[in-house]
């Protein structure tokens, strides 16, 4: 039951974020609490810790979007505003992308090594690597870089297989759906 609630909250949060609606942030925050429990019970410790880190990243994204929405006001006065008007996607500079990718790659390697040494995680390479990549995608989402959605889609394809392997069927289905939501978010943030 906890996994189902976590999946429903998480899917709702991602959908609302793809729409650039502020409500996506608090719903996603609640989902991290439920998924932290699910992943701990499945011995996916990096993903358990990741939920705590996601909570912090979600608070950052929520505050950033709220501040920018308030500062920007309604950008077009000739028609009703939409979330896309108030919170447009931003390009990601190549140099910044490489620097941040390198940082999160190092973080992933350290995470993998820690899992191999100090846990009974059955898939430390996937668990640690995907967790590091997810943090990068979360950062880029908070900053409204459109490419974050492509990164999420790639991550979610691999996560789907991991969750099937760990017998988390509901979560595997959710992440398979996230792959499509990531592509939708990429398309939606172009407008």
TrEMBL record:
Keywords assigned by UniProt?
A: Cell membrane, Membrane, Transmembrane, Transmembrane helix, Transport
Write down a Pfam family by its short name: NMN_transporter
Which chain regions cross the lipid bilayer?
A: 44-66, 97-116, 170-187
Which InterPro entries does the UniProt record give? NMN_transpt_PnuC
Q: Does the keyword Oxidoreductase apply?
A: no
Compartment(s) where it occurs, according to its Swiss-Prot or TrEMBL record? Cell membrane
Membrane topology classification: Multi-pass membrane protein
Q: What is its main location?
A: membrane
Q: Organism's domain of life?
A: Bacteria
Q: Outline what the protein does.
A: Required for nicotinamide riboside transport across the inner membrane.
PANTHER family per record: NICOTINAMIDE RIBOSIDE TRANSPORTER PNUC (PTHR36122)
User: What protein family does this chain belong to?
Assistant: Belongs to the nicotinamide ribonucleoside (NR) uptake permease (TC 4.B.1) family.
The protein's name is: Nicotinamide riboside transporter PnuC
* Organism the protein comes from: Bombella apis
């Amino acid at each position: 039951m906890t996994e189902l609630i976590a999946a429903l909250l998480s899917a709702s949060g991602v959908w609302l974020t793809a729409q650039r609606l502020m409500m996506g942030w608090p719903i996603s925050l609640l989902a991290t609490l439920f998924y932290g429990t699910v992943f701990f019970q499945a011995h996916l410790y990096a993903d358990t810790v990741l939920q705590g880190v996601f909570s912090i990243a979600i608070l950052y994204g929520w505050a950033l979007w709220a501040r920018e929405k308030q500062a920007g006001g309604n950008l077009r006065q000739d028609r009703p505003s939409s979330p896309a008007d108030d919170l447009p996607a931003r390009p990601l500079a190549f140099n910044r992308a490489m620097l941040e990718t390198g940082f999160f790659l190092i973080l992933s390697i350290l995470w993998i090594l820690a899992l191999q040494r100090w846990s009974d995680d059955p898939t430390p390479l996937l668990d640690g690597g995907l967790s590091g990549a997810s943090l990068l995608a979360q950062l880029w989402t908070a900053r409204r870089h459109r490419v974050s959605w492509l990164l999420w889609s790639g991550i979610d394809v691999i996560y789907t297989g991991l969750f099937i392997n760990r017998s988390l069927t509901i979560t595997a289905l959710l992440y398979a759906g996230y792959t499509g939501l990531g592509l939708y978010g990429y398309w939606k943030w172009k407008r």
